[in-house]
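Good morning,

Attaching, inline, the backbone tokens for the sequence recovery test we're adding to the shared suite. The designed sequence is right after.
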């Protein structure tokens, strides 16, 4: 299978910047069958096109309708291409359209964590976990995010060449472990985590495409690697939730996510949650809260390298509202309005969730379309945010599009999803992007290594591979600039 699929921005642009023939959710009197995308090949359907260039292919579907059928081998999947219809799917139809095959593979491996559960079980668990993401926790998390980034960036050396994605992966994992779990992972565990993750994601994609779930139990290489990755990740998570001496040092146990879970009772049984439940939620946070952030941070640095004038404005704003040496507070972050536009634009252009799914359990109407029971519905937040109907010059990085009233309330901006499964870590993530970027940029001026820019690699998330930068100390850079002025 020709994965991973690499999609360069320019390639994508060619394909998706073409106007739709009809407005996707134009009212009709009779619910219609979604149109079939052209270009299905005998036997394969659209699988080859999807695998060859996922974002280009998904982006190209919008011109055929707000919901478009595609064939993946023997399966027919409906792709929702219009942001308003995705919102309807996630909010109004949430009860009838629970999560789909991609998440189910994780459920088998890791149990009923927040990312995998549905219905009452999901509501109960979300209520238990929510306090860990409450506003009253944020000041403490900001201080940990700042400290972790300072420590890591403090170990870098002038002239060092950094593999940015790798470094951001380590950073994001450490931030989640120390802030939510009050623990530190050993270096071995950190490396094992990052080595295991690609096999987990590959297995997740391939298994979700199997014609029958029993295929996941066959001794195929992809299944074996998936199972091995699950074992590794469970071991790593054990360290975070138990903080065993010699492997992980516990910094603060009270008030952590595991402490919160262990103090709770399961409303369904009236009994305390089991250790398996605690582990399941921990793996959920590691899975959902590390690669999403690290990828976005990598794109943020890449975009700043491409747009030095934007970087200069960000640094000026940081100087004004978050002077060097101060620990960030929620109030200080709220004053960084330009920086917020920059992070929003990065999250729009590089929304990490390339594929998410729901399954219609009963027949539903989605805009003008009739969706039969059992239909799998796929949507790509990345493709939605590059829709030329919703965003002018969608592939241009333009932070100013978020200023002067254009803001988070836009119905077509859904990087954290919507409805009952909306990202629980959204506020945490926005803060982390700003705090980590600020700590890095104050200390270092990254200079792109020629030929080593970020390129998109699409799995279930859109990853940023290949960006390497040479580090120059920021102070030297400033002195040099003043000296030559
Ligand atoms: C840039 C960073 C992030 C992005 C773009 C992002 C995006 C998303 C999206 C789109 C969903 C909804 C998935 C669906 O509807 O099926 C989601 C759910 C979730 N996210 Fe995030 N996320 C980010 C960071 C984080 C962080 C930092 C954490 C935790 C530390 C986190 C934890 C979760 C969890 C637990 C869920 C499942 C919520 C539920 O079903 O109730 N995410 N995220």
């Amino acid at each position: 299978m020709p994965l991973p699929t690499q999609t360069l921005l320019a390639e994508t642009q060619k394909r998706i910047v073409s106007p739709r023939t009809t407005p996707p959710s134009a009212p009709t009197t009779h619910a219609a069958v979604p149109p079939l995308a052209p270009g299905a090949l005998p036997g394969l359907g659209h699988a080859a096109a999807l695998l060859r260039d996922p974002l280009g292919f998904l982006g190209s579907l919008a011109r055929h309708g707000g919901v478009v059928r595609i064939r993946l081998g023997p399966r027919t999947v409906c792709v929702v291409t219009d942001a308003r219809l995705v919102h309807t799917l996630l909010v109004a139809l949430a009860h009838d359209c629970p999560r789909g095959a991609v998440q189910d593979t994780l459920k088998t491996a890791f149990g009923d964590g927040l990312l995998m559960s549905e219905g009452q079980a999901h509501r109960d668990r979300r209520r238990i976990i929510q306090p860990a993401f409450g506003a009253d926790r944020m000041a403490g998390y900001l201080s940990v995010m700042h400290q972790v980034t300072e420590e890591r960036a403090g170990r870098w050396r002038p002239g060092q060449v950094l593999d940015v994605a790798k470094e951001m992966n380590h950073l994001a994992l450490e931030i989640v472990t120390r802030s939510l779990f009050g623990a530190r992972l050993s270096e071995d565990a950190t490396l094992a985590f990052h080595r295991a993750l690609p096999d987990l994601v590959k297995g997740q994609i391939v298994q979700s495409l199997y014609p029958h779930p029993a295929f996941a139990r066959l001794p195929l290489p992809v299944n074996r690697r998936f199972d091995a990755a699950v074992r590794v990740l469970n071991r790593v998570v054990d360290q975070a939730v138990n903080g065993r001496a010699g492997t992980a040092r516990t910094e603060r146990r009270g008030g952590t996510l595991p402490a919160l879970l262990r103090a709770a009772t399961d409303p369904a049984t009236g009994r305390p949650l089991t250790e398996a439940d605690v582990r399941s939620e921990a793996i959920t946070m590691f899975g959902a809260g590390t690669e999403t952030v690290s990828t976005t941070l990598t794109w943020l640095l890449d975009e700043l390298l491409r747009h030095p004038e934007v970087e200069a404005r960000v640094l000026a704003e940081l100087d004004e509202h978050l002077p060097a040496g101060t620990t960030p507070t929620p109030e200080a972050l709220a004053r960084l309005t330009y920086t917020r536009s920059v992070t929003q634009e990065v999250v729009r252009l590089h929304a990490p969730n390339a594929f998410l799914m729901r399954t219609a359990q009963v027949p539903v109407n989605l805009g003008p379309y009739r969706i039969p029971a059992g239909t799998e519905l796929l949507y790509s937040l990345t493709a939605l945010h590059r829709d030329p109907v919703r965003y002018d010059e969608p592939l241009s990085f333009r932070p100013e599009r978020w200023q002067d009233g254009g803001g988070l309330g836009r119905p077509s901006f859904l990087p954290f999803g919507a409805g009952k499964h909306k990202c629980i870590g959204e506020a945490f993530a926005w803060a982390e992007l700003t705090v980590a970027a600020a700590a890095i940029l104050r200390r270092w001026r990254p200079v792109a290594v020629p030929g080593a820019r970020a390129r998109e690699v699409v799995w279930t998330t859109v990853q940023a591979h290949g960006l390497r930068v040479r580090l120059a100390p920021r102070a030297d850079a400033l002195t040099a600039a003043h000296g030559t002025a």
